[in-house]
Automatic annotation (TrEMBL):
Transmembrane segments: none annotated. Its cofactor is Zn(2+). Keywords: DNA damage, DNA repair, Endonuclease, Hydrolase, Metal-binding, Nuclease, Zinc. It comes from the Bacteria. This is Putative endonuclease 4. Residues 18-275 form the Xylose isomerase-like TIM barrel domain. It comes from Brevibacillus laterosporus LMG 15441. Belongs to the AP endonuclease 2 family.
Length: 281
């Protein structure tokens, strides 16, 4: 199994991989550039290559995460072009670092177009533009939403359907966020078998490349996206244990995006999840 957490690249990409390793992880997530802006980053190819080599040597895998302002449903042509260029830049950095892909939240349409499918059309247009001519190995990893503010992207059906409708679906995989799934009401804590069966019927799990492993501060169906440490939230360690040992998830790398409030921080949380994974059913 692979478990790790989100780490900072403040000291470079290679150092980020080293930090992940020191925390006891065999995988990690990072922001390829400033998470608060869509500004293009010219990055050090040498550092990225070193990071790639280090990870290969130590059996570490990684994923990148797009900056917060990234919204695949951006409507204005100019804003959309800036967003597309930013995600393409993230893909280039992720690819240079040898990462599996770049996590992008399912889009949230904030306009008032009368057609309820308009937001999805914008999203498909954005994905087509991002992936046009892309020759790298890094994938786009679409993440499910919690339903905070907008209800788009809370179901596996939407994820699978958007992937199927773009020009190059082979370049898109999925990232399942446990806190978002719980807060959205998709996973209530007690219905994993059902969610898994539905996901298998849809072909969701075939393309599942990463799990954002987070507990939730708020109850299921609350649509509130607040992550908690594993075992410190409304989902609880037992249900998280069931999920990570399930057939749909057990071979997928797990990435913590938790506040690390427990004693010992992420290092002890990573050890805790390893134990949870190994503990008998
Ligand atoms: Zn997430």
């Amino acid at each position: 199994m692979h478990i790790g957490c989100h780490v900072s690249v403040r000291q470079g990409y290679t150092e980020a991989a080293r930090i992940a390793q020191r925390l006891g992880g065999t995988c990690y997530q990072y922001f390829p550039k400033n998470p608060r802006s869509l500004q293009i980053k010219s990055f050090s190819r040498q550092d990225a290559q070193q990071c790639r080599d280090f990870c290969k040597e130590h059996g570490i895998i990684s994923i990148a995460h797009t900056p917060y302002p990234t919204n695949l449903c951006t409507e204005g042509r100019e804003e959309q072009a800036a967003m597309v260029a930013s995600v393409r830049n993230d893909l280039e950095i992720a690819d240079a670092c040898g990462s599996i892909g770049v996590v992008v939240h399912f889009g949230q349409y904030k306009g008032n177009h009368p057609d309820p499918l308009f937001g999805y059309q914008l999203m498909i247009r954005s994905l087509n533009e991002i992936l046009e001519g892309w020759t790298g190995n890094a994938l786009i990893l679409l993440e499910n939403n919690a339903g905070q503010g907008n209800k788009m992207g809370m179901t596996l059906e939407e994820l699978v359907q958007v992937r199927a409708l773009i020009n190059r679906p082979e370049l898109v995989g999925f990232c399942f966020d446990t806190c978002h799934a719980f807060a959205s009401g998709l996973w209530t804590g007690g219905n994993w078998e059902e969610v898994q069966k539905r996901g298998e019927e849809l072909g969701y799990f075939t393309h599942l490349k990463a799990v954002h492993l987070n507990d939730s501060r708020y109850p299921t169906g609350s649509h509130r996206d607040r992550h908690a440490d594993i075992g410190y939230g409304e989902i609880g360690a037992e249900r998280i244990g069931e999920l990570i040992r399930s057939r749909g998830v057990r071979e997928v790398p797990l990435f913590l995006e938790t506040p690390a409030e427990r004693p010992g921080g992420h290092k002890s949380e990573i050890a805790f999840v390893k134990q949870l994974f190994a503990s008998p059913q």
